[in-house]
């Protein structure tokens, strides 16, 4: 057991210390505000505060974890060994910065509560983040900092034992359109055909009629191929299906279509499935509840996983909706337009609601790669970026989560390229 002395125990302190010390390092922790108890303790211990008590391991703090609500902290990013850090403290501390406050700032998405410039979709863009501006958005800094803290503990305590960890990959397939042509209805099929003719895409006109006449499979229905990959390579994949009502933002087919429901049931036999949230499900809890019930009725089980990669996360309102509806896992924490760690972490973490100052039961599974970035980068650049990220993650036994779309693997896309990326992120030779 690791005893931690701090003059004041706050909900923020409990949250971030448990994440670093217990979730990542596997250490049971206990807090004390009594100096005499800390001095008398003969086991593992360190202090966290303004002043060192004696010759103990000491991490000096800044004010962030003692506050409630939002302030506008002055942050200066500094180089530290091979990484970066912020919230610098005095030389009296055994670390040059407050690792716990910095980690809380990243994990809680503190900066996303503050006024910021939004992109065309109303989202918090990577370019506005402290990590991007400070040049460390492609590093899992929370784990890097934690492992340096781990080394510090090892130098002080010979008998300390940490949790065994290993590098892990997980792939998420985001499905907004199960079919390109099938089950679109008469009017949408006519409009699509007219559009293809106008744009001289005659191959699509031919394919559309072949699909509608059941002479060939719909090009977006690649689920047999992906399931074969899962079976062959034992891949950890979650499929996220959209079940929204048709509207100006969401163009998926009717969720009641038998073919659609059959595919979801088929995929659920071999992999985890979840809900890809529609536009109105982000901001309206009743819509979210309706979409949740639709998937649960199809898979005959509780909804465990959701994702939103297209629209604004609306922190913390949307996450509070997920919590209230007892949805345990969210995979939305990342940048669809940029490779990098939005929360500075590759590891799952509980969401901390700054407005309520509580740790929620919602687990955030951050992703570092979205196939959307492939539209803006050369193929070699993407593969090089992924290789660099994987190398960094292996140094801290982290997790690589990548998001693809089912249509990435269709004949209408550069399917061989995306299959190569799928192999790369899952280290398939």
Describe the protein's architecture and organization.
The protein is α/β, with parallel strands linked by helices and 429 residues long. It folds into 2 domains: 2-156, no CATH class; 168-180 and 218-425, TIM Barrel (Alpha-Beta Barrel), CATH 3.20.20. It is 36% helix and 16% strand. The chain has helices at residues 11-24, 35-40, 99-107, 110-113, 130-134, 141-156, 186-198, 202-212, 223-233, 258-268, 279-283, 285-299, 317-324, 379-395, 415-425; strands spanning 2-5, 29-32, 44-49, 58-60, 78-80, 83-85, 168-175, 237-242, 272-276, 305-307, 329-330, 349-353, 358-364, 369-370, 399-405. Strands 12-13-11-10-9-8-7-15-14 form a 9-stranded mixed beta sheet. Strands 2-1-3-4 form a 4-stranded parallel beta sheet. The radius of gyration is 24 Å and the shape is elongated. The mean pLDDT is 94. InterPro entries: DUF7033.
Helices and strands in order:
Layout: E1 2-5, H1 11-24, E2 29-32, H2 35-40, E3 44-49, E4 58-60, E5 78-80, E6 83-85, H3 99-107, H4 110-113, H5 130-134, H6 141-156, E7 168-175, H7 186-198, H8 202-212, H9 223-233, E8 237-242, H10 258-268, E9 272-276, H11 279-283, H12 285-299, E10 305-307, H13 317-324, E11 329-330, E12 349-353, E13 358-364, E14 369-370, H14 379-395, E15 399-405, H15 415-425
Parallel strand pairs: 1-2, 1-3, 3-4, 7-8, 7-15, 8-9, 9-10, 10-11, 11-13, 14-15
Antiparallel strand pairs: 5-6, 12-13
Helix pairs in contact: 1-3, 3-6, 7-8, 14-15
Protein name: DUF7033 domain-containing protein
Pfam families: DUF7033 (PF23019)
InterPro entries: DUF7033
């Amino acid at each position: 057991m690791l005893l931690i002395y701090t003059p004041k125990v706050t909900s923020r302190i409990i949250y971030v210390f448990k994440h670093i010390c217990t979730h990542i390092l596997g250490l049971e922790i206990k807090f004390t505000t009594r100096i005499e108890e800390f001095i008398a303790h003969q086991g593992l211990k360190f202090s966290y505060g303004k002043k060192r008590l004696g010759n103990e391991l000491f991490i000096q703090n800044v004010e962030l974890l003692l506050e409630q609500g939002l302030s506008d902290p002055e942050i200066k990013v500094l180089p530290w060994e091979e990484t970066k850090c912020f919230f610098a403290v005095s030389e009296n501390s055994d670390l040059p910065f407050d690792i716990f406050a910095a980690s809380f700032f990243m994990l809680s998405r503190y900066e996303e509560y503050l006024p910021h410039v939004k992109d065309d979709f109303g989202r918090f863009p990577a370019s506005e983040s402290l990590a991007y501006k400070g040049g460390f958005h492609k590093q899992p800094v929370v784990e890097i900092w934690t492992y340096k803290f781990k080394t510090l503990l090892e130098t002080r305590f010979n008998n300390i034992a940490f949790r065994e960890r290993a590098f892990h990959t997980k792939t998420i397939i985001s499905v907004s359109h199960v079919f390109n042509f099938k089950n679109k209805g008469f009017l949408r099929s006519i409009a699509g055909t007219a559009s293809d003719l106008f744009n001289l895409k005659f191959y699509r006109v031919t394919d559309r009629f072949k699909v509608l006449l059941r002479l060939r499979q719909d090009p977006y229905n690649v689920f047999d191929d992906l399931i074969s990959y899962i079976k062959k390579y034992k891949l950890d994949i979650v499929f996220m299906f959209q079940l929204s009502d048709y509207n100006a933002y969401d163009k998926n087919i009717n969720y009641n279509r038998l073919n659609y429901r059959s595919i979801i049931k088929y995929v659920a036999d071999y992999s985890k499935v979840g809900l890809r949230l529609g536009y109105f499900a982000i901001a309206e809890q009743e819509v979210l509840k309706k979409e949740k019930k639709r998937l649960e009725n199809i898979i005959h089980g509780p909804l465990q996983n959701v994702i939103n990669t297209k629209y604004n996360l609306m922190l913390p309102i949307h996450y509070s909706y997920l919590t209230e509806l007892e949805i345990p896992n969210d995979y939305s924490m990342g940048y669809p337009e940029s490779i990098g760690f939005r929360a500075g972490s590759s590891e799952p973490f509980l969401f901390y609601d700054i407005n309520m100052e509580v740790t929620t039961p919602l687990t955030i599974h951050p992703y570092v790669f979205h196939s959307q970035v492939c539209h803006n980068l050369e193929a070699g650049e993407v593969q090089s970026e992924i290789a660099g990220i994987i190398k960094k993650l292996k140094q801290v036994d982290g997790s690589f989560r990548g998001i693809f779309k089912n249509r990435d693997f269709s004949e209408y896309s550069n399917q061989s390229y995306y299959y190569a990326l799928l192999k790369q992120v899952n280290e398939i030779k």
